[in-house]
């Protein structure tokens, strides 16, 4: 074999499909050409792909892996703003599981050597039977890329170089015991190393599941809070409508009483007129009084029937609104119970509810990173980009704005006795969901003072 054909370490990129498993492989040079716009990938149009960068040794064994996201537009072209230093991350990555050539260097969302790239990475699934690292190892072993393999076969020793020991040296109990002891020690070290690697792999998996569980609980808590606010707003609207209806009923009753009083006055006036006519012409007055009485009774009956009908309609509407108000209160209590039940569920059930959205537009917001906005969400994003970014970070809009002010200028916001801000530089909180007003945006002195006031 010439020097040009000697096997070397190879960098490759593996694409994962939505159903799981490696769906496409290419050399890193081909991937760079894809990023430079030389070629497109129409089969990945409008998708966010899960990709793994791997470093492979001449024995087809993985030495390093970086798991990252890449967005493609409607034409299959990759995101032009993507700039993750894969080789740098793989060189600085922490230890991962052993895939045949010792512990690999692993960079993922829960183990990222550069914190500001963490939001663009993803955690591999380490569950038995669906282990993404095992899928990578098997895909590399199949060698679909046609890599040069190092020959591990041992060369046979020439017969003339073989020497037979003398008979007095055929048996060496002490040497055999020493060799057995070394073998046992070697096996014990290998067992300890494998045990340590297994423990690290399980810790990595637990860290990944804990982070996903925390994000899902935050998402459910935010959704429940928004729904509670909506129901409370509806209840306030119904209460206001109820008060308006009650005021209207009071006005109608007052009008009815006024008209009844007017009718009574009219009746008294007619009676006076009747008594005056009675002195002149008895028969004419009787006829006239009967006509007035009939007309008056008809008008009164019509007015009373009309107002009774209006009052009955208002009473029905009032009862309906009371029923709606009671139903809304029951819905609020039910949603609170469902929220508590969802928050207490295990990570496995919550992970099954993850939704996958197609990519339409990509924007960048601090704390949320590059957000993929589906077409159906464009209107809501245009109306309030801050609220949309806050929802993606699983916090309210108010908390996101407070965190953004802290993120842009990480200094103490407590007020001194002079009325000025403390402005002492503090550690920046990179995640909005972990930002707490009065704690994350204060120095240690004012943070301690705030806790003392709270306890007092």
Q: Can you walk me through this structure?
A:
Residues 206-283 form a coiled coil. It comes from Pseudomonas borbori. The chain has 456 residues and is α+β, with helices and mostly antiparallel strands. It has three domains: 10-150, no CATH class; 233-344; 361-455, no CATH class. Helices cover 53% and strands 11% of the residues. The strands form two sheets. Strands 2-1-3-4-6-5 form a six-stranded mixed β-sheet, sandwiched between helices. The longest helix is centred in the middle third of the chain and has 108 residues, at 173-280. Mean pLDDT is 81; it is low at 153-159, 162-173 and 346-355.
Radius of gyration: 40 Å
Oligomer: single chain
Write out the strand line-up for the largest beta sheet, numbering strands in chain order.
2-1-3-4-6-5
Domains, number: 3
Number of strands: 8
The ordered string of helix (H) and strand (E) elements is EEHEEHEEHHHHEEHHHH
The helicity comes to 40-55%
Mean pLDDT: 81
Low-confidence stretches: 153-159, 162-173, 346-355
Q: How does the helix and strand content classify structurally?
A: alpha+beta
Protein name: Chromosome partitioning protein ParA
Keywords: Coiled coil
Coiled coil: 206-283
